[in-house]
Design brief:
five-stranded parallel beta sheet, Rossmann fold, elongated, alpha/beta, Arc Repressor Mutant, subunit A, 14% strand, 5 strands
Length: 207
C-alpha cells in the first residue's frame, strides 16, 4: 500500500480550513494530520507530527506571518516541504517565500486540481512558483514525448489524430496520457490541457 503524503494545513479562515481538510483527505495519496489557524504554532506541531509538506497561509490568525514561520521550520526541520498559500495580490510575497526557503507558492484562487498538482510536484522535488519558474519546472517534469502529447491535446486533436501524428499506437498514447496524469495530479487530460494553456506553459500554435 502506497504511503500517504502527511499534510499540516495552516489557514486562519475557518471555512477554507475545513474545506481544505475535506478535499485533501479525499485524495487516495494524501492525509491531513493537523489543521491550525495560527502560524506561530506550526514549528512545534511540525516537530511532533513530522509532516511531509506544510500548506502555509501568508497571513494567519493573530497576524502571524506564515512566511517567517516557514523560514523557522526550514531552519530546524529542513526535510519538511513548505507550500506557501495566499489570496493577496502582493508580488513581494513570492520573493519573500523564496528567501524563506519555501518550496512552492500557490494562489488560493487556482482551484483544487492545481493544489493537488502542486503538492505532488513539491513532494517529487519539483517546486512550483508563479511566472517563468513554472515553465522551467513544467519542462523538467515531463518527457519530450509527453510534452508533445500535451501540446496536441491543447490543440484539440483526437486520440486517433495524436497517435498518427506521433507515430504511436493508441495503446502507447494511452500509456503516455496515464503517465502525464500521474505526474500532474489531474484526473482528466482536458482539465490539465486547460490549466497548461492558461498558465502559458504550452503554446498551442504549431511552430
Amino acid at each position: 500500500m502506497r504511503t500517504k503524503i502527511k499534510i499540516i494545513v495552516v489557514e486562519d479562515q475557518a471555512m477554507l480550513r475545513d474545506s481544505l481538510e475535506q478535499v485533501i483527505s479525499r485524495q487516495d495519496d494524501m492525509e491531513v494530520v493537523a489543521v491550525i489557524a495560527d502560524a506561530s504554532g506550526a514549528p512545534e506541531l511540525c516537530r511532533k507530527l513530522k509532516p511531509d509538506p506544510v500548506l502555509m497561509d501568508v497571513v494567519t490568525e493573530n497576524n502571524s506571518n506564515g512566511i517567517a514561520f516557514a523560514a523557522q521550520i526550514r531552519s530546524v526541520l529542513p526535510e519538511i516541504k513548505i507550500v506557501i498559500m495566499t489570496s493577496l495580490p502582493e508580488i513581494t510575497f513570492v520573493d519573500e517565500a523564496r528567501k524563506a526557503g519555501a518550496h512552492s507558492f500557490i494562489d488560493k484562487n487556482m482551484g483544487n486540481d492545481y493544489l493537488f498538482f502542486v503538492i505532488r510536484s513539491t513532494m517529487k522535488g519539483n517546486g512550483v512558483y508563479p511566472g517563468p519558474q513554472d515553465r522551467v519546472n513544467f519542462a523538467a517534469q515531463f518527457t519530450e514525448k509527453e510534452i508533445a502529447v500535451i501540446r496536441l491535446v491543447c490543440q484539440g486533436k483526437t486520440r486517433n489524430e495524436m497517435a498518427k501524428e506521433l507515430d504511436l499506437s493508441e495503446a502507447s498514447l494511452g500509456r503516455h496520457i496515464t503517465a502525464i496524469l500521474d505526474k500532474s495530479g489531474f484526473d482528466n487530460i482536458m482539465k490539465f490541457a486547460v490549466y497548461a494553456v492558461g498558465q502559458g506553459l504550452i503554446v498551442t500554435d504549431k511552430p
